[in-house]
Amino acid sequence: MERKSGNKRARGKKPPAPEKDRYGENGNVLLTRPQYENLCARFGKERTDKAIVLLDLHIGAKGRDAYKDHNLALQRHRRLSGRQGHGQADG
Q1: How does residue 89 score in pLDDT terms, banded at 50, 70 and 90?
Q2: Where do the structural domains in the chain lie, given as residue ranges?
Q3: Is pTM, for the whole model, over 0.90?
């Protein structure tokens, strides 16, 4: 009995991940250059860089990285989205 060849996917072979650059003082934030440029275009360079600093510090303080995608983490960050946190200074 022959197996029908449908949608075959090579096992163990994933497409290479795009090269990510390290951002932030400690280099904890990983973004591709196009992701960084897109964030700057959407939210402005200053706001993007401030959010990167905060995410970098947060990851460093935790001692582990709980984020699968730093680009998405930055997009939902309150400094970029314009939302305010509960009782937190906007410093």
Answers
A1: very low
A2: 21-81
A3: no
